[in-house]
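Example complex used in Figure S2.
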Amino acid sequence: MVMFWVSLLAISILLYVLLDGVDLGVGLLFGLARGDARRGAMLSSVAPIWDGNETWLVVTAVILWGAFPLVYANLLSAFYLPLIVMLLGLILRGVAFEFRYKTQRLRWIWDLSFVGGSLIATFIQGLTVGALVEGLPFTNGQYSGGEVGWLTPFAVLCGIGLCLGYALLGACWLIRKCEGEVRDVARRQIPVLAVGVLAFLVVVFAYALAENLPILHRWIDRPYLFVFPAIGAIAATVLALSILNHNDYLPFHMVALVFMSAFGTLALSFWPYMIPSVITVDQAAAPQSSLVFMFWGCGVIVFPLMLIYTLVSYSVFRGKVRASGGYGH
Amino acid sequence: MDITALLLSRIQFAFTITFHIIFPSFTIGLAAWLTVLEALSFATGRPVYRGIFEFWLKIFGVAFGMGVVSGIVMAFQFGTNWSVLSKMSGPIQGPLLMYETFWAFMLEASFFGVLIFGRSRVPPWFYLFSTAMVALGTTFSAFFIMVNNSWMQVPTGYVLENGVFAPNDWTKILFNSVVWSRFPHMLLAAYLTGAFCVAATGAWYVLRKIYHAEARIMLRMGLGLAAVLMPIQLFFGHLNGIYVNTYQPSKMAAIEGRWNDEQPGSEVLFAWPDVKNRRNLFAITLPSPFGSLIDSDSLTAKETGLNSIPQEDWPPVVIPFFAFRLMVGCGLLMLGLAWLGSYLSYRHRLAYNRPLLWATFLSFPLPFIAVITGWFTAEVGRQPWVVYGVLRTADAMTPFLTARQATISLVIFCAVYAFIFLFGTFYIYRLIRTGPARKQFEVPHLAVPNRPMSLADEELIEEPSHLVAGE
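Predicted assembly (800 residues):
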């Protein structure tokens, strides 16, 4: 039963990262784009999906609370300020999305909110993962890092890294969904972003070695983990080739594969911990009666239905969006 | 633990949840009203019902979007500010919130898609069915939230195990006796909110002499529904009083401003509770046994006063005392308006009675005030407990939360909410002002079920140039 909920949690987080990563990334690139037509096309490429994507963040939160209350309580309270800022960033950007074309004069406010919200949310998500990898200060099972215990150079580095990563994801999405100038600009941005991500990974790895982070020992214990970076490397190579060949569809699938292998790497190097070296999956799990109650009422039927619903929405929205038309008007 | 951080966390929770409840209490009622309209349209085939339906569907979209956005924060705030509570009650409150999220997501998101795209693609009966499913989804949401809150009011079906509340009987939790008076009370409150907003809109159009046919239907149906529901609501309110008196004597004593044990009890209608000296100033009181009659359905029952409860277990008396009276006052005003308006409407005189039309128009804040003060009574009255009798609010807070963190978060919450909701409310106002334009309804091409607000896309740009007098 615990494993069932671990899997659902993993699926939800992965879906959130992949799906919302796309529209957060487009939000980041939106800040670099000039001209209403280009901006409009970029927004059109994520307009029908962004809200559904964020649903997976809420799903992650309720699974965490219901199935792993100890982790929910510790994580959310330890990351107090960044989490609240991230939520409000997400809200602001969501509302900006809805309101920007209801006004001409004040559009710049909403555009600014959209870019700012995307940047803040992405940076904080990277920061959180970085702080977890490095290890949060805990004393006797309780967070003891104070107001900014999560603020380390390594965490900040991961925040920047994720901004590059989501932007890369977003650029590959734009190639897939758009045509004309938007696609061409995105195609030129990808090599820069990809090199940035690569440099980030090298620095992270060097830092982890230098600091002798405990998470590295997992790799010596479990050599099979190297299969994930291997998949990531192959995907990255195919990505590079597909950009050179001006292929519109492969890059997105490849960068998604890179993200999945990164996720797999991280998840398995955490295992069996949920908060590394402090709380394990079994310690965090809610009593059996809670897990079973959720299994029958939510997990076994409703969750698969939600997955199907997501698939259907994406298949309805397949293909290129109209190149012009500035966001539907 | 930081006392200032505790106070700020409580203010933050109160602020965000007060903002949030405005939208669901409106949309739950509106969803039910949409179902009724669609059923009428299905049964009679009159186009006017279709027009009103499509008008209110757009407003539903915006308000629903606001409710979702402000609700997301709630799911996280338990963890950020109340980590001890969320750790201890996670095994019970977490699953209930998960049911709420999952089920509501399924019903609302998928069938809302049909409401947007389906008019020409699905048979009319299925369209009606989808409307009902959206309404059912909002009702499920309300149900699980009420079960969740009722567990905090009257905890049951659990054992305290390794420092957490482990559920050992889910039927007791789901069918907690108080759920069945509190859930209908909330549901009726939402229906009344919808009814009064609809009636107020109708009254506004009549006063402005526009949309004659639609306005008359909105007025008649809104007030008529309220006239029927209001007495039922008072009955369920009374049942709620009985549960409070049974399970939460400290809350009841505060609501009633009752300081000493009385047998049988008297009833304070109005007073200024002087907490320091433990007495009421300027009290207007009905003699005994009215208090026992109201609180216990009895002529002789003993009613507990605050003096026989340790002061450390008192709620802040003044807030539940006045919040309760405000709620009842709004309720009685609504009852009067609904009955008088329905009577005049029955005699076909309502459209000419300008004072009553103005009163109806201006009455739209009443149900919102009643909902908010009702929740203040329930939640502040439960203090100093977060889970009544088991876990104190002060012990439930994140132990390492500092006042500075809480100040920063509260300030940005206020700023962002004010910013966003000012715009949201403004857009709803504009939609209502423009009214049910008589043109073929077209789906904005970027509208999708996941973006309820997008339904209103095309409408907001236009100025209401077509607002000439109706029939």
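Confidence is low (pLDDT under 50) at residues 323-329 of chain A. The radius of gyration of chain A is 20 Å.
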